[in-house]
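Deliverable D2.4 — example input (structure tokens):
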């Protein structure tokens, strides 16, 4: 194995120079060319913050046609019993024969002037034929292979690796493995599948190019086939893996492999693709790649030995990190690249292009509106529930924007419904990125009827009846009693006209309106079917029905069956009469001597009177005498300007006047018993009369109001509760004392505080913030100028941190765990120590610190201390837990038990940890590669000839057993 992993590309260049297959100038010119192309695509290129996109990395090689590297190829051929025609699932197909014929065809196509070939045939055990350039000898050996036994795939790879240990220095080592079944046998009771994979990986790590061919049954599913899955995972890349259903096409696969052996675009290829900062890799989305990448953070790394001329595609998925951030972002960073060696051994770097991904916020969705209906006047608050709402979302009902739109959460918005028309309307929620969600809302209210005109009509029907009100919808239906009234005209939501249907009998009937949405209203006895009309005149009403005794005013006599020539009689006097219609007469009221109520009559041409008794009133022209009973308040400062109320009787709007002493003032009429006035200013204190006058009618309330001089009253502070607090301010304090007045102001250290006047003995203030700690004076100033200062009355205290919890409250004493310290009043410079040891601290916000736990030798409870930038501290209990006891490593065997210093061996066993130490005697190996928990690759350190004991020491200082290694 020590000879397998070589820098054969450099040797290959020397070999060409010595043997002269390609002239030096041609080689140098070819080495200048770039034989690798790479593209990157994303599908889809537009996603939401909740979605994923698949990244396709397409890498294509274009090998130089005039450069062929010598290869030493081992053909591994499965000869297990499942290859025989007698094996049931084969249905008589002789897979063994077909495999041998295809393998011999492979040998025939090989250029033995450049390449060599060897054969490993395996079942439960492996046999081999050594490297040769004799095609006939190889084919003769292949002819003798017979199918029988199990499938020890790992052992076959071991045998091939042993043959390749002696490959030519200038030749590329290659394995071409064909099998039809899953690995079924392995040594030491190890899992055959895992054992085979480990052997294949060890060979690839040593520089071997690995081709695999899965020979499947015709109806076998490649995606679930155990041998196909094993072969895919063994291949150098996906382009180095093939499968066939039945033996059909097997010879073409071998021919394709022969054609490309020795021709490659790149060697020792490393593909490093770093995802952009706005995305993260979807875990597991890269598992189906061949080879599988190593994923560290946001970086995927593929390593493989060579790149051919076919396209190699790697797939993985990414998703946005910030679920609230939209925009156009690069899928990968500019540091993404492919490094490789060209055929001449020169190191190459190829940048991997990026692709931009458009990230949108998810479209909003409305699932419900509560309540889903409301009054057309709007003003109701509705709750819109759904998904993907964001701050700044706008809400419309139809084309009208809602008011008071409040973003509650991504699933809830509240809004005030604007006015709208009765019926269904589309509700839209539009996020700031113009994505819209829609739902339905119903403006719904029972119709309201304010008038029905006329309210009566003949039994024969046909009366055009105007119904006024609100909330009539198009399509509204009307019934008089139980009979439909045909719609005559729809004027709008506030008026309709219908034809009265034929009535059954005289008298009132209910009028019912029903909107298309089912809302309805019934006006009891809303329409009356008239009895057959009388021809006698009839007075129904007088408008207006009163006036002054001076007469001369116009009234209207309303009724029916009026005729031209009829006269109106008021009391006993004829009035000048004008005929307007059969239902109305206009009359000029005659003058009378005395006030009172009189009859109004209509006299026909033949002298008959038709009277409406006591229907018109003559009024006296006189203003009432006012009275003044009280003035409230009845005292005030000589400066005036304050409002008082005058109570009494017989106040007349627009007539009543008020005088304070000798000063007239404007009086605001409230009602007949109340006036509101603004007190005028005077120069001297004292009591004055208040006079109220209705023109010539007056009333005096002697000395009803007293003017007083202003008195300055100093307040007195007796206590401040609390009298100390944080310099942040913003909290309540209460000032107790005496003589506080409305409009009072308060300062703390000269800074105004918000004040709420409770009563003359107590004030509530909002303590203002302070820039420093210590005592400050508290000053209270009344509106009249009286003031009181309590020196040092309030103390500003420094901000104190508070710890409320630690999550988690314990961690291993090994350190490195992340915990969160929760509490209040943390600042950006806060530090944390655990058991006296400073811990790396990240400020999250004023209530949270993120801390990395330092290592400790202590197990149990220890103090955790938060220290602010002002030196204030808070302490809490944190618990260190003991380290778990790991299993000690065990060495089961060495891949080689003897050799020279500098050679590479594999140590197999159990419970190996990453970054172990390996000792050969007392000498520590300097190159130790951790493969997995069961395999280490070690470069033998310098040592003297003879036996030494080899041991493995894990990072937790657990030591393995020892095994013997011999220095040759």
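Example output (designed residues):
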């Amino acid at each position: 194995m020590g000879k397998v992993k070589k820098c054969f590309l450099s040797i290959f260049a020397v070999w060409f120079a010595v043997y002269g297959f390609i002239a030096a100038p041609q080689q140098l010119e070819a080495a200048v060319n770039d034989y690798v192309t790479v593209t990157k695509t994303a599908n889809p290129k537009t996603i939401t913050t909740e979605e994923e996109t698949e990244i396709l990395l397409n890498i294509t090689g274009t090998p130089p046609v005039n450069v062929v590297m010598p290869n030493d190829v081992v053909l591994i051929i499965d000869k297990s019993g499942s290859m025989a025609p007698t094996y049931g699932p084969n249905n008589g197909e002789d897979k063994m024969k077909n495999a041998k014929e295809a393998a011999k065809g492979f040998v025939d196509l090989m250029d033995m002037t450049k390449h060599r070939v060897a054969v490993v045939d395996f079942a439960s055990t492996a046999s081999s034929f050594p490297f040769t350039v004799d095609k006939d000898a190889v084919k003769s050996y292949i002819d003798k292979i017979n199918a029988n036994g199990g499938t020890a795939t790992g052992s076959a790879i071991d045998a091939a690796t042993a043959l390749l240990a002696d490959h030519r220095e200038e030749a590329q080592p290659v394995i071409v493995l064909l099998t039809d079944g899953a690995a079924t046998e392995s040594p030491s009771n190890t899992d055959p599948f895992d054992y085979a994979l480990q052997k294949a990986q060890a060979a690839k790590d040593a520089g071997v190019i690995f081709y695999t061919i899965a020979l499947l049954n015709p109806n076998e599913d490649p995606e679930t086939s155990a041998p196909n899955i094993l072969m895919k995972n063994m291949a150098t890349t996906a382009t180095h893996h093939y499968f066939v259903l039945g033996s059909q096409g097997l010879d073409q696969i071998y021919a394709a492999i022969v054609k490309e052996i020795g021709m490659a675009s790149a060697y020792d290829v490393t593909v490093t693709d770093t995802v952009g900062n706005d995305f993260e890799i979807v875990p597991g989305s890269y598992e189906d790649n061949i080879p599988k990448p190593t994923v560290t953070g946001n970086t995927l790394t593929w390593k493989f030995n060579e790149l051919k001329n076919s396209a190699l595609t790697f797939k993985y998925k990414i998703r946005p990190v910030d679920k609230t951030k939209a925009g156009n972002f690069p899928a990968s960073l500019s540091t993404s690249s492919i490094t490789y060696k060209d055929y001449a051994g020169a190191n190459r770097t190829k940048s991997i292009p990026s692709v931009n991904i458009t990230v949108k916020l998810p479209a909003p969705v409305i699932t419900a509106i509560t309540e889903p209906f409301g009054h057309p006047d709007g003003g109701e608050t509705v709750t819109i529930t759904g998904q993907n709402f964001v701050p700044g979302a706008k809400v419309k009902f139809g084309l009208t924007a809602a008011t008071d739109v409040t973003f509650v959460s991504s699933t809830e918005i509240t809004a005030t419904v604007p006015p709208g028309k009765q019926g269904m309307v589309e509700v839209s929620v539009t996020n700031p990125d113009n994505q819209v969600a829609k739902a339905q809302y119903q403006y719904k209210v029972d119709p309201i009827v304010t008038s029905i005109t006329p309210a009566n009509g003949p039994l024969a029907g046909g009366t055009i009846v105007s119904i006024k009100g609100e909330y009539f919808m198009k399509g509204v239906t009307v019934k008089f009693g139980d009979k439909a009234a045909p719609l005559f005209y729809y004027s709008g939501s506030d008026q309709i006209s219908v034809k009265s249907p034929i009535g059954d009998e005289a008298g009132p009937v209910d009028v019912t309106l029903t909107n298309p949405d089912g809302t309805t209203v019934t006006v009891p006895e809303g329409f009356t079917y008239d009895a057959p009309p009388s021809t006698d005149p009839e007075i129904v009403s007088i408008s207006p029905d009163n006036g002054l005794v001076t007469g001369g005013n116009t009234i209207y006599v309303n009724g029916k069956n009026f005729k031209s020539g009829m006269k109106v009689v008021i009391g006993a006097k004829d009035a000048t009469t004008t005929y307007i219609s059969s239902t109305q007469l206009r009359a000029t009221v005659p003058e009378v001597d005395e006030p009172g109520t009189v009859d109004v009559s209509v006299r026909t041409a033949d002298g008959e009177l038709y009277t409406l008794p006591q229907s018109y009133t003559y009024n006296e022209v006189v203003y009432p005498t006012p009275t003044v009973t009280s003035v409230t308040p009845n005292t005030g400062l000589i400066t005036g300007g304050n409002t008082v109320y005058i109570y009494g009787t017989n106040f007349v709007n627009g007539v009543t006047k008020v005088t304070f002493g000798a000063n007239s003032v404007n009086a605001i009429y409230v009602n007949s018993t109340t006036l509101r006035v603004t007190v005028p200013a005077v120069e001297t204190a004292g009591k004055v009369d208040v006079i109220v006058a209705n023109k010539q009618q007056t009333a005096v309330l002697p000395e009803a109001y007293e003017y007083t001089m202003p008195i300055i009253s100093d307040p007195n502070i007796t206590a401040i509760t609390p009298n100390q607090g944080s310099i942040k301010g913003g909290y309540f304090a209460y000032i107790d004392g005496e003589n506080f007045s409305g409009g009072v102001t308060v300062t703390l250290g000269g800074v105004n505080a918000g004040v709420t006047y409770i009563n003359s003995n107590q004030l509530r203030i909002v303590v203002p913030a302070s820039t420093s700690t210590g005592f400050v004076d508290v000053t209270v100033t009344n509106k009249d100028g009286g003031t009181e200062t309590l020196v040092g009355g309030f103390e500003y205290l420094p901000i104190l941190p508070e710890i409320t919890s630690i999550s988690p409250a314990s961690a291993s004493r090994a350190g490195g765990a992340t915990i969160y310290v929760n509490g209040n009043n943390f600042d950006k410079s806060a530090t944390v120590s655990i058991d006296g040891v400073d811990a790396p601290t990240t400020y999250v916000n004023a209530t949270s610190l993120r801390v990395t736990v330092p290592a400790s030798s202590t197990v149990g409870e220890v103090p955790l201390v938060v220290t602010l930038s002002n030196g204030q501290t808070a302490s809490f209990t944190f618990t260190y837990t003991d380290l778990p006891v790991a299993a000690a490593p065990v060495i089961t065997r060495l891949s080689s038990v003897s050799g020279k210093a500098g050679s590479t061996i594999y140590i197999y066993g159990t419970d190996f940890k990453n970054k172990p130490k390996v000792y050969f005697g007392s000498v520590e190996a300097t190159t130790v590669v951790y493969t997995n928990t069961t395999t280490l690759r070690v470069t033998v350190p310098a040592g003297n000839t003879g036996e030494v004991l080899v041991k493995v020491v894990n990072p937790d200082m657990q030591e393995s057993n020892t095994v013997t290694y011999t220095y040759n």
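The first strand starts at residue 36 and ends at 43.
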